[in-house]
Amino acid sequence: MIPTHLAIIMDGNGRWAKKRFMPPSVGHRAGAQALRKLSYEVEKLGIKYLTVYAFSTETWNRPEDEVRELMALMREYFQQYIDDSKKNNMRMSFIGDFSRLEPDLQEKLAILTDITKDKTGLHVVLAINYGGRDEIARAARSLAREVAFGYLNPERIDVDMFSKALDTHGLPDPDLVIRTSGELRLSNFLLWQLAYAEMYVTDTLWPDFTIAELKKALESFEGRARRFGGRPGE
What we know:
Blueprint: E1 5-9, H1 13-19, H2 24-42, E2 49-56, H3 64-84, E3 91-95, H4 103-116, E4 123-130, H5 132-148, H6 159-164, E5 176-179, E6 198-201, H7 211-228
Parallel strand pairs: 1-2, 1-5, 2-4, 3-4, 5-6
Helix pairs in contact: 1-2, 2-3, 3-4
């Protein structure tokens, strides 16, 4: 069994660079290249959706130079994805609070979303300035405004309605979440959506995460699916 929706917490860029006595920016660039390579291989395995944690709301707390380099890297790679869209069938979209991003970055996100919206291949979702708690709070505020204006009876708010108020509305929940670098936590990633997802943790640092490493995770997932029969209720 192959997961329909794969989520990845891409961790370990800084440690990868530190092991090589290099600055964090080198690790982030290697991580971006790893994602670029992997995204073009994932579709061949039958996975339909790939959501990755690219820039969390907590990343702003890192040194200013590192944040600035990350922003420059995003500009560069988003432009590459825009250029690539002319020759591939990959759809791209974004989740998170984009209000803190510079206008030119917001524009690139909008361009990528628009020019790939009709693509029918792998749907890649990048979480940019994203935090699970922040997403849930924004969804709650949105529903609260509808109640305050008299558009919504609070008794009608259920799990399905709340899900539709989240950034990920229209997407199936992930079946499998992979975390690289060996950390055993979600780090505020897709807190609502990962309620029933299987977890796979590897000590491999993200820049070293290859298609071979992914296949190990998928083999583990397949074994669990056979053993337990899928999610509750399936």
